């Protein structure tokens, strides 16, 4: 297997020029490893929900919006205001970050830290129950919600998602027999 081959390159999911330290609203999809159906277990589902609802207790200026826990993934909207973002300058570009120390930079990279802490909290609690094989997919999907119309469409998608499980891009049945759905195209339809 040639790791230099384009086929094996990891896709960059973040917008390279977007300042993720900026406050705003973000739609997130966080999946279990190999889309394993862990959240059909009532206790694991409760743990995931408790940890999701606890996010504002651990991070300043965070507000949760609509969310849903599906059999193997979670969709949710997170809003935050970042009063520290003004130190990064007016630009939407992230190029000025090199001026800050690593410790200063970490406190402005809120989205990956929130997701990482959420995943870690769920994993610790689920492992304590004896589900040692529980794992998350390595990354997560995010979409920057740019206006009220996108927010309304995102909320509608989240609310309707359980009723559309058979069509869901994260449903493992849709990955069998070559029916693989391209995630980017699937989610893009939400906002069109």
Task: Describe the structure in your own words.
This protein is α+β, with helices and mostly antiparallel strands and 192 residues long. The chain has a single domain, classed as Alpha-Beta Plaits. Helix content is 32%, strand content 15%. It has five helices and four strands; from the N terminus they run βαββααβαα. It has helices at 42-58, 102-108, 110-128, 148-160, 183-188, and strands at residues 24-31, 62-69, 73-80, 141-145. Strands 2-3-1-4 form a four-stranded antiparallel β-sheet, with helices on both faces. Strand 2 and strand 3 form a beta hairpin. Helix 1 (42-58) runs antiparallel to helix 3 (110-128). It starts with 23 loop residues before the first strand and ends with a helix. Mean pLDDT is 78; it is low at 84-99.
What is the arithmetic mean of pLDDT? 78
Number of helices: 5
User: What is the rounded Rg?
Assistant: 18 Å
What is the H/E string?
EHEEHHEHH
